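Example: CNTLN protein.
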Amino acid sequence: QQEKQDLEGKLKLREHLSQTTDKRGDMLASSKNIDLEMKQLQCKLKNAKNEITKQSTTIKSLKKQVQEKEEQVPVLQAKISQLERDLSMKRHLIEDLRSRLEVNQENEKTSNETLENLERKIKVLAEDCSNKKRSIESLKQRLNVATIEKSQYEQLYHQAKDELEKKDIKLTNLESKMIETQCTMAELETTASQQLHHLATQSKQTLETLQKKLLLTNDKVEEFMTFVKALTRELQYSVQELRSKIKQAKKMREAKACKKGLSQESIELAASILNVSTTDLEELLEIEDDEETAKTKIEFEKDKEWMQYIQKLLEAQFPFASYLMDAVLKKLNEKKKLVEEYNSLMKHT
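Written out as structure tokens, the predicted fold is:
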């Protein structure tokens, strides 16, 4: 419709222009052009009319669709309201179910706890039952044993009763014999007292001689103990002396090696740097290292343990000779090894 109005407006303009134009030759040419334009505009008008008819038909169809949809709208609204009601109902149901679930879960927890407690109690009761069964079985066994023992003791009682009767008869016979023996015993006591007096005088003399021998043996034992102690001390002292000699020999060898490696000038230079005398520097070089001190400590402890072991052997009960011999031989072997080491060191130095 708007295009139609525009075209009509243009036509009116063209008509107005055609009236106002001059009546010259140019007017003819312009009129031809206007006619052509008029034809074109008419064609456009026809096309626009056709389009309007098409659009009017589409509008009618759309109106029908709109009416149908408007008719469907209340139905759909009713359905939506129903669905909303259903939804709210379902939400309420879900909330109820959730609350019930929570309650059920709590109940389940409590029931599980009670179940666990009951299971524990059942286990305890089962253990008690098993223990009681065992005790009952053991008591049954004891009862059986007791009944067997009872029967045995009854048999023994009857036997003992028979034996007692026999022994009573024997006792009466023995009493008569005892009277006879008492008479003979009185005679024997008199003779025995005389013999004992004679023996007592003899035993006094033998006891005096034994006491003298015991004193002599005690003195000998004490002498032996002092000898063993002195021997062990001497052995230990000689071993320690050998160790110290070996250390001195090693130090001498090391000092000689150091002196060979270092010249007199280098020793003096080192002494001047350290601000000490050459003799002090040599002493510093001769100081033994931590390993040697540790070794000496270990050796001292071993010697101490050896002495304690020998003391224990001497204080121990008999026999201890084999153990004492082993301990002394061990120390002698150690001394032998030290002597060989010292000799080899002295040869090298």
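The mean pLDDT is 79.
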